[in-house]
Known about the structure:
Elements: E1 9-14, E2 17-22, E3 27-37, E4 40-46, E5 54-58, E6 76-82, E7 88-89, E8 91-95, E9 98-102, E10 109-115, E11 134-136, E12 140-143, E13 151-152, E14 160-165, E15 171-174, E16 179-182, E17 185-190, H1 193-197, E18 201-204, E19 208-213, E20 216-223, H2 231-248, E21 257-266, E22 272-278, E23 282-289, H3 295-308, H4 319-322, H5 335-352, H6 358-372, H7 381-386, H8 401-416, H9 423-433, H10 445-452, H11 456-466, H12 473-479, E24 482-485, E25 490-493, H13 499-509
Amino acid sequence: MNNFIKLLFVLVIFPNTIIAQSSGKNYEYTIDFLHMTDDEVTVSLTPPKNNFKQGKFIIPKLIPGFYQAMNFGQYISQFVATDKNGKEIQTERLDTNSWMVHDLKNVNKISYQVADGWDSLEKDTHEARSAGSMFIKDSVFVINYNSLIGYFEEIKEIPYQLNIIKNKGFYASSALDYQKINEITDRVWAKDYRQLVDSPVLYCIPDTTWLKVGNTEVLVSFYNKKERHYSKKIADEIQNILKNQQAYLGGKLPVDKYAFLIYYEASREEGYLGDGLEHSKSTVCLYRSGSMNFLSDALRRVASHEFFHIITPLNIHSGEIQHYDFLNPTLSRHLWLYEGMTEYATVHMPIKQKMISLDDFERSIEEKIRNMKEFDNTLSFTELSKNAMEKQDQYMNFYQKGALLGLCLDIRLRELSGRKTGTQDLMLKLMQKYGEGKYFNDDELFDEITKMTFPEIRAFFRDFVEGSQPVPLKEYLAKVGFIYDETQEKISLSPHPDPKQLALRRAWINQ
């Protein structure tokens, strides 16, 4: 999500050097963050053993969680392949994000330079930086491996071994387990490319705090060039959020380990910028503001939203995401689920868990309504989802109208079930059916949800998600004893709610 305001080997170790003798059944990479030249990092790899006459090497065009072309290949230069004798092997750049490597079976080493995608949050740009990488020599490295590491189209679904050369004293904050080889070298493994790019890392002098929430171990890692020992304060806020999310999700967090990687940059400007990207077991959060006092609200909005993504699309998703094509992906129809329902949970959880007042909840709904009106609400959400890359000017409506559709769906489910179940229960049922390693067929999801719930729910999806009928806010809010003044865009409590409205409201928001 992009929100502005995701072998066997023998070692011989010499000082500052690693020689690895591997089985050749994995990608072996070395990334040198210590010896940077002209703000660029050197990356080298040994391909897996193979018999291919040529191979297509790919750096992602875009990644799951973003719906615009990022073209990470634009940061790659000086791409060179050599054999075991150091003789150069022919390569040719096919486009921004791919290279053809000839005589691949005899390639011993490929090396290239990587420039960072951003160096400051102060620059006035609407590009999402939480999916890219940033290098500040001797200070900090925010790393998303999709911008440094690639794969051959002909050689997929195999492990990765990475050797990381870094500053002495730097610590790797990540959901992956980094092993210290010597003072300036770490090693990490990933079972495949998808896991690697799903596991960002923050490299710097550590300011970290560990939490235990239920059965989940949570790492909070913080970087600011001036502020030190701040992770504990942030961790206290995150712990409160996670405990409430745990209760909201039925008493258990669906992940055993999670990492919050937080980069903060001071600004002379008022307000703040928050940019986050979800991953299966971690979140990258980038913040810029004139004061650190904003962090509590920012964490509630951005970090909470990103953590809820462990439900969807990370556990509940279609085949298009399960078999993601990093160069030419086919998009799913269900951004209403991946982003809309995630944003709704972010808004709904604080009032349901009594973290905020009823007035604050009403204001958050009003804000969504006002923001929704900035977009074309005659568009079908399923069609918009399939064409999200071409409809970038409409994409952010999934966080506005999508959340409001989630609100209406929640009320409707509670009404039909006699107040027994809502969207919280629906998402848990979907996660049980389409959990890790499983996926749904894109065209069948609405029918599957209908089978899980009530026949009337199919009409809801047909009218408001596949179709373009206006969100029925006035009608649905009236069911729970709220008055929606469409002219003033204001929401207030009904002065004389009946017992049915009150009971449904209590089931919905615990008020």
